[in-house]
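Suppose a colleague, Dr. K., hands you the sequence of a protein chain of 263 amino acids and asks what its three-dimensional shape might be. Before reaching for any lab equipment, you can write down a predicted structure in token form. Begin with the sequence itself:
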Amino acid sequence: MSYSCTSTGNSQDPSCSKKSGGVNPGSCSSGDTGNSNNHHSIRGSKANSNPDLSEAMRVKKGCNTTDVGVPVTTEEELLANETISPEDVLGLQKITENYLCSPEDNVYNIDFTRFKIRDMETGTVLFEITKPPATDKGGDKRDVDPNAGRFVRYQFTPAFLRLRQVGATVEFTVGDIPINNFRMIERHYFREQLLKSFDFEFGFCIPSSKNTCEHIYEFPPLSEDLMREMILHPYETQSDSFYFVDNKLVMHNKADYSYSGGP
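The predicted structure, expressed as tokens, is then:
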């Protein structure tokens, strides 16, 4: 499965090119240390229905989690659990080496179809990823990596680390099962240092609906030393994105990042 990525803006604007994987919403690592604010809005509509019948969805404002009072957990402990809760992943102290759930756990058929990042100060669209339409072409699927759509590699210029406010718009569809308490926890690390942890509650999603939401991240200034290290060591900045329905992990996506402006 392949995805398209379109970068816009001139050579002085922060930019990205996606190397592999799929639409991985919410993953725009800018390395704050836990003091940024997030704003979240979402709208949903019934798929293939009258566009005038769009229905607003109840959503809590996203927050930057501080993990205060959350017990420390390890990847090995969580892999041994029958189910994984939000509190479990909030206790992780480093990036996971493995996926904590399988693609088959996504029984709700949540499918991310579009992801866009823009600079809120200038309105510049930094990049946009769109999932291509499904095809009915035959072929041997035995050699297809089941995790191919769960990992994305991003390439940014160093200027991205100096952005103050970034909007991340995601479009996703859901299957014929209603979704209660849809929640995303996104954790970003540089090496084994937690840079930031975001927690968004999407709320209820009606069956067979297409939904669009935008997360607005406000980033504090980074230290020059930290930015230098992140630029000099591409792909050592990584993120885990965990998705829960009724406090049970159903999806896990991963991404890594380069800020050197090249492959």
